[in-house]
């Protein structure tokens, strides 16, 4: 009998490795491209700390985005604009440490990359070296192509973001759908420029579904929709919206998959009642001498 290869034999004589479940591999940018090529959809969710990162990773979410949305979902700001690189790096580090399979994508916050490709490079390097990010995301169209090219030439994967770009909300006149009418052609032009510069994927936010479909069909790389219809190659949501932590106004494109706010509120109210009424801690929660 020929010697078995390492791939054919389980450790410690446990029988053929094929009898065990295949280990999940780390998602890479080429994994996402292969999924598009096969016509398979993939998913992205935001995450800002270890527990949600671990849960979403175990659920099979392919990409975890540590978004600048942490500004108004973690730090209590009204918009995404105030959050800084120094505030986001610890969040990215926590997610990267807690997600063994998902690709961890770090948002470059407002003001940290727009000035020049060199500024973008130095910011992205911090997220890769100090936080363990696997890729970075930046907002903007044709004007950001030089930033994308320098980063990708330097070995830093970049996901671009077009359509409604929250960091430019004041310039865009607030939260408004982008790409209607003649704007659809401009979206395709921007997307193609970013693809040519080396972006591995492009997020489209608040874009009419027909325009998003046209962009998706025009590109080789994957598109990620958030309020951009069903024809994108992937979808992304902010987790506090889709799991019902956020009780404020949520965008039309959000589907709420749970009502965690009510669950957590009820549990906290029960805890308060138990403590005040003497029901907690009970004997089983206490130590004997």
UniProtKB/TrEMBL annotation:
**Metabolic or biological pathway:** Cofactor biosynthesis; (R)-pantothenate biosynthesis; (R)-pantoate from 3-methyl-2-oxobutanoate: step 1/2
Q: Which GO terms describe its cellular component?
A: cytoplasm
Q: Which UniProt keywords apply?
A: Cytoplasm, Magnesium, Metal-binding, Methyltransferase, Pantothenate biosynthesis, Transferase
Give the annotated active site: 205
User: What are the binding positions for Mg(2+) in this chain?
Assistant: 68, 107, 139
> Where is this protein localized, as stated in its record?
Cytoplasm
Q: Which reaction does it catalyse?
A: (6R)-5,10-methylene-5,6,7,8-tetrahydrofolate + 3-methyl-2-oxobutanoate + H2O = 2-dehydropantoate + (6S)-5,6,7,8-tetrahydrofolate
UniProt entry tagged with the keyword Cell inner membrane: no
Q: Key word Magnesium present in the record? A: yes
Give the organism, scientific name: Aeromicrobium endophyticum
Q: Where does 3-methyl-2-oxobutanoate bind?
A: 68-69, 107, 137
Gene symbol of the encoding locus: panB
Q: Where is the composition biased (Low complexity)?
A: 7-22
What's the family? Belongs to the PanB family.
Superkingdom field: Bacteria
Q: What is this protein called?
A: 3-methyl-2-oxobutanoate hydroxymethyltransferase
Q: What is its EC number?
A: 2.1.2.11
Q: How is the cofactor bound?
A: Binds 1 Mg(2+) ion per subunit.
A single GO molecular function term of this UniProt record: 3-methyl-2-oxobutanoate hydroxymethyltransferase activity
